[in-house]
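Severity: low
Component: inverse-folding endpoint
Summary: output formatting inconsistent between runs
Steps to reproduce: submit the following structure tokens with default settings.
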């Protein structure tokens, strides 16, 4: 990031007080990790659950920090002995980071679209960014920087020349998205879907929908909301929308929908956008990605982009890493990496797409624990086991303690190929090595905590 902000302006934007130093220096960039701090960056001492940045002031000083933003007035002696280095005191360093991002947002006249939902946020954001970049210089939040820290960092990348901005908004509790929307001030809002992701935090799908709806509540009257047509929880909230709403889906009555769907080398379908019809070919697997494309296209349409630009942008979209990414193993086996994250809805969608697409190969699925399901974990894992009943030619390998009930659910549902549980990652890898060959396709799907990509990397190094 290149902020180039005088300290006087910084102090005003974050409501800070100068403890030492003067307002002469310029804030060019900031960092809150002393291990990666570069000389002349300001060290932002975030006080988090896992670590308190104030304990790393001395390492940051040794790394060449140009200044500090802190919320604790007591400083290490080594910092006090350098009175020329600015130290800014704020009430809360996280809030100050957010205030700085909100201030920077006001300095640029950009069309901001925000995307949230239980599944598909990152892919939809990247699809929308691909469309917008066909005509305008566009900032998209990198990766999945969608948190109370990540989104402000993404916004700090705004610069002259940007005409559009696409941001991903995540939440782990009520009020998170409302705060992120206050910072980003989007005019366009997309909710991809409502599902079981993070239900441990929200407690129910209705509460999850309410949390995501905070994005729509934040939109101005001149804005536009893009919502899935068939979601029962969001349907109840649509009359409360402060702005016009566009619905997307596969139903025949929707204004934005897909028809003539074919799954071959990627996905092909006809995009119906109001009265317009045009073919789209996506370089992505998974039928669920069609809904992501509909959401992105609908938002771009409401932002003023023409159908031909939407078509060009969707076909230029490059799949996001670890989301149904396909690799050829030296043995000839196909490895499908969808291991970025998992919840019951995304797990079932990935299994269905994988099972349909690779029907000419022996199909193997490596399924790991679905985390953050709270008290529903046992039941939802058992339901996943029962779901396998409709995939009689699928061999399933389980890993992760929470995934054990999948085996139990499969047995209870009468699944013929009972999943095999592996107590360790090494045991899993040993089992998979014996399956590698040109006639096999293997899907990897689990919550991020299991790091299944490491298994894929190990297998790719094995011939």
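Observed output (run 2 of 3):
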């Amino acid at each position: 990031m290149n902020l180039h902000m005088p300290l006087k302006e910084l102090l005003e934007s974050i409501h800070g007080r100068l403890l030492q130093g003067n307002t002469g220096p310029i804030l060019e960039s900031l960092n809150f990790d002393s291990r990666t701090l570069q000389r002349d960056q300001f060290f932002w001492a975030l006080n988090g659950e896992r670590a308190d940045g104030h304990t790393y002031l001395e390492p940051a000083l040794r790394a060449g920090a140009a200044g500090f933003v802190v919320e604790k007035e007591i400083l290490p002696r080594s910092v006090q002995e350098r009175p020329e280095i600015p130290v800014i005191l704020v009430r809360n360093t996280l809030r100050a980071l957010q205030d700085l991002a909100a201030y920077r947002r006001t300095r640029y006249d950009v069309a901001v679209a925000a995307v949230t939902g239980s599944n598909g946020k990152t892919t939809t954001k990247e699809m929308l960014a691909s469309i917008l970049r066909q005509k305008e210089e566009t900032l998209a939040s990198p990766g999945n920087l969608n948190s109370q820290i990540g989104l402000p960092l993404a916004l700090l990348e705004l610069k002259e020349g940007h005409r559009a901005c696409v941001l991903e908004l995540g939440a782990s509790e009520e009020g998170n998205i409302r705060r992120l929307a206050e910072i980003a001030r989007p005019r366009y809002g997309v909710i991809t879907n409502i599902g079981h992701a993070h239900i441990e935090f929200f407690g129910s799908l209705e509460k999850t929908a309410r949390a995501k709806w905070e994005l729509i509540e934040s939109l101005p009257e001149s804005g536009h909301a893009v919502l899935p047509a068939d979601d029962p929880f969001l349907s109840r909230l649509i009359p409360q929308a402060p702005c016009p709403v566009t619905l997307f889906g596969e139903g025949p009555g929707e204004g934005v929908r897909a028809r003539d769907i074919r799954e071959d080398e990627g996905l092909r379908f006809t995009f119906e956008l109001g009265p317009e019809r045009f073919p789209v070919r996506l370089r992505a697997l998974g039928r669920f990605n069609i809904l992501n494309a509909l959401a992105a296209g609908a938002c771009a349409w409401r932002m003023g982009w023409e159908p031909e630009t939407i078509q060009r942008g969707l076909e230029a979209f490059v799949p996001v890493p670890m989301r149904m990414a396909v690799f050829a193993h030296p043995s000839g086996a196909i490895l499908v990496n969808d291991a970025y994250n998992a919840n019951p809805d995304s797990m079932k969608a990935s299994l269905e797409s994988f099972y349909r697409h690779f029907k000419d190969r022996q199909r193997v699925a490596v399924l790991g624990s679905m985390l953050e399901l709270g008290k529903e974990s046992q039941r939802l894992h058992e339901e996943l086991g029962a779901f396998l009943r409709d995939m009689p030619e699928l061999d399933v390998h389980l890993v992760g303690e929470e995934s054990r009930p999948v085996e139990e659910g499969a047995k209870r549902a009468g699944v013929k190929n009972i999943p095999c549980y592996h107590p360790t990652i090494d045991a899993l890898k040993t089992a998979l090595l014996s399956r590698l060959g040109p006639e096999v396709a293997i899907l990897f799907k689990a919550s991020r905590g299991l790091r299944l990509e490491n298994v894929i990397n190990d297998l790719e190094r094995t011939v």
